[in-house]
Amino acid sequence: MQVSLFITCLGDMFYVNAGKASVELLERFGCEVDFPKTQTCCGQPAYNSGYHENTKAAAKNMINAFEQSTYVVCPSGSCAFMLHEYVALFNDEPEWQEKAKRLKDKTYELTQFLTEVLLIEDTGSEFHAKATYHTSCHMTRLLKVREAPLKLLGNVKGLEMIDLPNRHDCCGFGGTFSIKMPKISEQMVDEKVMHVEETEAEVLIGADGGCLMNIGGRISRKSKPIKVMHIAEILNSRGEM
């Protein structure tokens, strides 16, 4: 099965190990992974800020970059959903909208692809730790991927999963929201960190780079002894902490 990896900006610059783990996971289950080098930002920051016309150039580039792909897999629910959103973006350009529909139909978030396409519920991973999972807003509310991550994590040998209180609350990142409304964002992420601490987890797991960067940054500033990891790293683990 041929799969193209959409790494995302944050994955490319900050979460390289998550990208590597994603490739290794896909290859382990029989996928041939390629990486279209013309891929760039999906345009989500501009789109969420209301600059829809400006977003179209980035969107057209991404549509062209993955036009020949059989499947597109992304280790970020937020960015995967943005590729789906291209259909609405090109509502006034029928030709590009049709291309956007084809891209939407073959684009999946990583855990969604593992469970829905490859029909994998146990990746055979092992990770000995007490952990909790943060559910990101775009992935759960818009892409509607809710059960796949928890199902996969529940089958990781040695991993004790603790439910995160108020787990559906936003962490305060929200893309440009955290830049435009820093004081509100700070209070939101402080509340998220407080709930993570309540679980007494050693590891916070997430599936979106933006959330991990925001929560992990606050954890670091507060000098909390909590490790922050992308779900791909956990699902690809062979027992190391």
Strand proportion, as a percent range, falls in 15-25%
Structure summary, number of beta strands: 9
Which structural category fits the helices and strands?
Answer: alpha/beta
Mean pLDDT: 95
Cα separation of the termini: 31 Å
Order of SSEs: EHHEHHEHHEHEHHEHHEHEHE
Number of domains: 2
Outline: globular
Tally of alpha and pi helices: 13
Radius of gyration: 18 Å
Biggest sheet details: 5 strands, parallel
Which bin fits the share of residues in helices? 40-55%
Low-confidence parts: none
Describe this structure in words.
- This protein has 13 helices and 9 strands.
- The protein is an alpha/beta fold and 241 residues long.
- The protein folds into 2 domains: 2-116, no CATH class; 126-239, AF0625-like (Rossmann fold), CATH 3.40.50.10700.
- The strands form 2 sheets. Strands 5, 6, 7, 8 and 9 form a 5-stranded parallel β-sheet that branches. A 4-stranded parallel β-sheet has the order 2-1-3-4, sandwiched between helices.
- β7, α12 (209-221) and β8 form a beta-alpha-beta unit.
- α5 runs antiparallel to α6 and α11 (182-199) crosses α12.
- The longest helix is centred in the C-terminal third of the chain and has 18 residues, at 182-199.
- The model has no long low-confidence stretch (mean pLDDT 95).
